Amino acid sequence: MIALTLAEIAAIVGGRIAPPSPSAALPDPDLVFSGSVQTDSRLVETGSIFLAMPGEDTDGHLYAGRAVAAGAALVIAERAVDVTAPVILVENGVRALADLARFVVARVRDRGELTVVAITGSNGKTTTKNMIAAILREHGPTVAPVDSFNNHVGAPISMLRIDESTRYLVVEMGASHAGEIAHLASIAQPDVAVVLKVGLAHVGEFGGLATTAASKAELVTGLAESAVAILHAGDERVARMAGMTRATVRWFGDGLANQSGLRANGVVTTAIGTRFTVRDGDRLLEVQLRIAGDHHALNALAALSVAAELGIDLAGAITAIEALPRAERWRMELLPTPTGALVINDAYNASPDSTEAALRTLQQLGRPGGRTIAVLGEMTELGSASVELHAAIGALVATLGIDELLVVGERARGVFTGAAREREWRGRLVFVPDAEIAHTLLASHLGANDVVLVKSSKAAGLRFVGDRLAGVPA
Fold it and tell me: Is 277 inside a domain boundary?
């Protein structure tokens, strides 16, 4: 974070400086802080600012002492804490975090050459974020989120990693409720905004695709006239966002609206990744990603469109994304096993759309003499449509002719039911109650040419099944 005094931080977050303990004197308001901002005491480093907030599972105030012992130099809290570091008391920690991030981004923009790139969409945000960051790092100091820090807490924390030397800030914006993306956009004030897709992720929270689309559109409706919106021409809900923004609109992907933007031709997925050709006007450029899945060609087009908008040579940008070894940990990771089988470990997030894409990749990667095996767990946040949407995935497994389906966990039983209804499917269908039994069953009968897809939302814990099959250390 940029260097700020204790008094400046207190003013920014609307808080008051308090003594670290009832018997201590008030700290010097001119003390300067420039460390990372953290809400998790386990991530605190020497000089960090620890923001103590009540959470879903625990209360950060309980860990303030641990954070200071780990090196936190300042605590921002909603109530008094007994620590040895200076304290700023605020009414609302989430609001304080947003106010601090908003100030820091604006200060760096005013004093430097900061360009902010924001990405949203139901699927593909993290992969696209990593591709954009890989491209931009070749052209200046770049800050991008770790993992999927894309909500009302994680995104501002990522923004606060910038300093005066930062040239590019990449922000991933996710949401499970209306207004959240508008809130994040108001903090970051993007110069370039990318919308990938409107799909069924979080549909249980939003209540339907129309509401989901309205949430994603929040990113472009608040853009300044000087900004650029890069939209997926092949998604009609995204394409309609062109009429909702004052910003200049650019396009990528197949679609009637795309007259001059980037398109992908000849997309082929193999066990070493995804190959395709980018059409840029009359120029054709070959791309060989190390990330498997036809859907990743679209993510690459979005990233390359950002590069083109920022004046970066596309050939160099392609080299940067070709070097990425994977989309992200537990996202379409191709892991060889000691037996010779191949595991596609894609069990960090799951929605009906991303699960369909992963299943189609499994089908494409089937090898002669081996089986295609889908290991599927729960897709969370689908609300009242959960049973129906899980059943549709089971039916898709049958339609694609996957050889075996292993369904894990009671919350995913709809997948089993949907596949069982497909009487013409001759595949093997098994239900097990938990991940441990799933691992035992798989480990006992994997053949050398088998390809196994492990897919679920994070809560199901199946990502560790994929790791164990491949011998990846915990």
Answer: yes
Looking at residue 366, which CATH number applies to its domain?
3.90.190.20
Is the pLDDT assigned to residue 436 strictly greater than 60?
yes
What pLDDT is stored for residue 129 in this prediction? 95
Q: How many residues does the chain have?
A: 474
The CA distance from 72 to 46, in Å, is 6
Hey, which residues does 18 pair with through a beta bridge? 87
Q: What are phi and psi of 250, to 5 degrees?
A: -120, 155
C-alpha 119/C-alpha 21 separation (Å) is 43
Residue 434 lies in a domain: yes
pLDDT score, position 204: 47
What's residue 257's pLDDT? 78
The Cα–Cα gap between 415 and 397 comes to 9
Based on the domain organization, do 119 and 263 belong to the same domain? yes
Burial of 24 (0-12, 13-18, 19+ CB in 10 A): middle
366 & 459 share domain: yes
Query: pLDDT value at position 200?
Result: 64
Question: Do 50 and 64 touch, CB atoms closer than 8 A?
Answer: yes
10 Å Cβ neighbour count for 450? 23
Task: State the CATH number of the domain containing residue 215.
Answer: 3.40.1190.10
Judge if 244 and 372 occupy the same domain. Answer: no
Residues 216, 306 within the same domain: yes
**DSSP letters spanning 45-108:** -TTPEEEE-B-SSSBGGGGHHHHHHTT-SEEEESS----SS-EEE-S-HHHHHHHHHHHHHHHH
Largest CA distance in the chain: 77
**CATH number of the domain to which 74 belongs:** 3.40.1390.10
342-346 and 451-455 beta bridge pairing: parallel
Query: Range of 60's domain?
Result: 4-90
Please count the structural domains in the chain: 3
Mean pLDDT (whole number) for 228-244: 95
Provide the pLDDT confidence category of residue 372 given band limits of 50, 70 and 90. very high
Mean pLDDT of all residues in the chain? 92
In a domain, 327, yes or no: no
Q: Average pLDDT, stretch 301-314?
A: 97
